[in-house]
Amino acid sequence: MVELVSFYLLDPFAYGFMRRALVAAILVGAVCALLSCYLVLKGWALMGDAVSHAVLPGIVLAWMAGLPLALGAFAAGMGCALLTGYIKDHSRVKEDTVMGIVFAGMFAAGLVMLSRIETDIHLMHILFGNILGVGWGDIAEILALSGVTIAVVFLKWRDFMIYVFDPAYAKVAGLPVRALHFSLLVLLALSIVASLKAVGIILVIALLIAPGATAFLISHDFRRMMILAVLMAVFCCVAGLVISFHADIATAPVIVLLQAGLFAAAFGCNLLREEKSGIWHAKKTKTG
Amino acid sequence: MNDKQDDLITVEGLSVFYANGHKALDHVGFTLKSGVICGLVGANGSGKSTLFKTIMGFLKPATGTVRIAGMPVAQALKQHLVSYVPQSEDIDWNFPVLVEDVVMMGRYSRMGFLRIPSREDREKVTQALEEVGLTAFRRRQIGALSGGQRKRVFLARALAQEARIILLDEPFTGVDIQTEKAIIALLQDLRDRGSLILVSTHNLGSVPDFCDEAILINRRILAAGPIAETFTEANLAEAFGGMLRRVQLGGGALHDDEDPRSVTVITDDERPLVLYGHTENQEIMPHRDEKAGKR
Ligand SMILES: Nc1ncnc2c1ncn2[C@@H]1O[C@H](COP(=O)(O)OP(=O)(O)OP(=O)(O)O)[C@@H](O)[C@H]1O
Ligand SMILES: [Mg+2]
């Protein structure tokens, strides 16, 4: 028994790259899970997808200018969010439509740049991440970016919750609604940038939605929702890493699959419970 | 001097346009004092919600000013003077918050940077829940409540906030008579403690029952002031145009003798407004027989 545990759970982390991957996965999973609670409730799922795709041209431009790639990515992500808001406010087009145009356009621009410019940027690594290749330098960067997000959410989670739940009341009660709105966008962009090395542009959206969605199904209050989301995300990241090590498959997709599996399980449990209580209820009304 | 200090809402020459150029409010002006329940009455699209949004600072007026307790709106909001009970349709009832969490939101603007509730905050929440009769439901998720209970949660939030001005947009839609009476009793209690309550409603008949004043609006102000002066047939006809049903009973249909008095029933399919007396000088009839509606 002890040997089995040791073989499956501990041995992988004898390798330095696995230990680094573990730290990165836990950080990224936790920070995305925290934000996912807000995104799911605010209806910003597509916003997460848009910002993550839109970072590509920023990365290329930052590389050309010799700036840190994270900086370019962050600027482009925020640019996408702000441009979307501006166009929505100044036209009759719905927000999700605008987002579709803005982020697809920016992503395409990034792809065009990459195909015309000689860079040492690996497109595959940006699209799908390369968690097994993160170094301690990368981890320091992830720690800084996600640390800011975690700290802000930890301090201000109630303000963000009121803003998402009832923005009109938040404003009337004198809360700084605009500041909260833009802070949430900044945190979203920050955590996407933090996740790039680990899971890449395409799959980060799963980390930004699945934990919140699953926790939403099984919680009645917001604090519990956040705690559950983080616990589930961390579990999926660790388990995904271990499974991918033993089965020799890419890590990020395994993590995402596990999260989808948890969502399906929560959904199934809910259905069962509703059915049970429904039957129970029907019986009760019949006999009573 | 003292008069001016009592003025809680002062609106002057207020015009508001929407982005498409639609003029929703046209030179609106009125003054409301503390200790008053005022009904904001008007047909669909007459600008009631627009007026609320402007008072709450969501819409910027093209001309004119709104002052709250003598201050500009933004400053008054920072001092948590204004509370707002949203229309039910504006709330996500699946949101994972408990009843007591929502009521606690009324205290947030008073809390420090970290929004940690003090003992006083907890006491006020408990007290507010008790006043609206939701103590037993305080740990329920808000979606697991009936329509009337849901309304009372948000009323409790306004109570906990201890705001001097409470705005309610259509609080009586989808609420049974009993809950309506409970809400009205609460509002009257708040008024007696010195709050100003502004209620928008379609429910013509109940306005004279619980409001002290009324503002009749149709893009511009048609009448504003005490109920007895504003709630006349002529004003209502102007406010609602052809949208009201009006039945007048008189002569043989009502009296066996030569009594010239007649009854006028005005309704928009909710609670009717009943006027009785000499045709030119009818008075508003109170609704005494509530039980009849309940069976
Ligand atoms: N966002 C908007 N853009 C353009 N016009 C608007 C907008 N919102 C409202 N209006 C118009 O402004 C006018 C006033 O609307 P408002 O919502 O204030 O009416 P209301 O009195 O609240 O009506 P109801 O009784 O139906 O709630 C209406 O003619 C409406 O069509
Ligand atoms: Mg309205």
Key attributes of the depicted protein:
heterodimer; A: 288 residues; ABC transporter involved in vitamin B12 uptake, BtuC; 85% helix; B: 295 residues; alpha/beta; six-stranded mixed beta sheet; binds adenosine-5'-triphosphate
Determine the mean pLDDT of chain B. Answer: 86
Number of strands of chain B: 14
Provide the CATH top-level class of chain A. Mainly Alpha
| Amount of helix of chain B | 25-40%
- Total helical elements of chain B: 11
Contiguous helical run count of chain A: 11
Q: List the strand order in the largest sheet of chain B.
A: 6-7-8-3-9-10
Indicate the low-confidence ranges of chain B by residue numbers: 289-295
- Small molecules (ligands, ions, cofactors) in the structure: adenosine-5'-triphosphate, magnesium ion
**So what's the oligomer here?**
heterodimer
What is the overall silhouette of chain A?
globular
Helical content of chain A, roughly?
over 70%
The major beta sheet of chain A can be summarized as: none
**What is the H level of CATH, i.e. the homologous superfamily of chain A?**
ABC transporter involved in vitamin B12 uptake, BtuC
Q: Roughly how many Å is the radius of gyration of chain B?
A: 20 Å
Q: What fold name goes in the CATH topology slot of chain A? A: ABC transporter involved in vitamin B12 uptake, BtuC
Condensed summary:
Chain A is built from eleven helices and no strands.
Describe this structure as you would to a colleague.
The complex is a heterodimer of chains A (288) and B (295). With 288 residues, chain A is mainly alpha-helical. Chain A has a single domain, classed as ABC transporter involved in vitamin B12 uptake, BtuC (Orthogonal Bundle). Chain A contains 11 helices and no strands. The model of chain A is unreliable at 282-288 (pLDDT under 50). Chain B is built from 11 helices and 14 strands. Mean pLDDT of chain B is 86; it is low at 289-295. Chains A and B meet through α7, α8 and α10 of A and β6 of B. The complex binds adenosine-5'-triphosphate and magnesium ion. The site of magnesium ion (MG) has 2 residues of chain B, from α2.
